Each structure stands twice: as structure tokens, then as C-alpha cells.
What does this fold into?
Amino acid sequence: MTNRKGLTLIETVIGLTVIAVAFYLLIAIFITLAPRTARVETLNKKVYLAQEKMEEYLARSFAQTVTGETSGAFSGSFSNYQYRIIVTQVATGDLNTAVGYNTPFKNVKVRVWGGQPDAASTVEVVSLAISYEIQ
It folds into this structure.
């Protein structure tokens, strides 16, 4: 019997082939995950901006939350995102349907869209403004 030390050429080629296949699979996974990560990041930014705009709007008094629509764009590094605030008077029985008269309830919706990628999707945050004063 001979005492062999090291690897043969065939063993080395098989080992390199297994490593190459493993690297190919890892690269393929990362390539497919990168666009998804960018879409999730854009979605998170839209949710953050919508919540920020909602908090800013609800910090006003009930009388200052004027019924109607307000649109605009964010500034700074978020300048490619736009928003729309929709305020409607709603009744106690149905807090989602607008009524044509003053009530102590206002449905406030903030919609945010824009950004890249997946600029077509819109995020909407909805809240209710309530007045405890007798009108």
C-alpha cells in the first residue's frame, strides 16, 4: 500500500464544482431579494410620512381641521413623495360615510404616494377627529 497525501485532480475539480454551484445559488437569491427590499423600504417611508402628516394634522383643534381636501409634496429628501389629506364630516351611525351637515366627528384620511420603485402604490392612514363640545 502506498501512503497518499493530498487530493487528486478529480477530487479537486468536484470540490470546486460544488463550491461554484453554492455561490451561484447564493448570488441568485440575493439578486431576487434586492428589488423586494427596495419596495419594502419605499413602503415603510410612505407609512412613516403618512403617520407624520396625520399626527401633524390631528394636533390642530377640531375647528381647524377643515372639511375638504388638501394636497402637497414633502420637502427635503422626501421631495419625490406627495400627499393628500381628505377630511369629511361623518355621523355616529357610520363613521366612513360623509354627511352634508356639521357633526362632532370628522374622518381624516392621509394618502401618500411617490418614491421609487413601485411609485404607483398608495398608502392610506385613516383616523377620527372628535369634538366633545356641544355644537
Notes: Helices lie at 9-58. Residues 41-130 form a domain with the Pantoate--beta-alanine Ligase; Chain: A,domain 2 fold (CATH 3.30.1300.30). Strands lie at 68-73, 81-90, 105-114, 122-130.
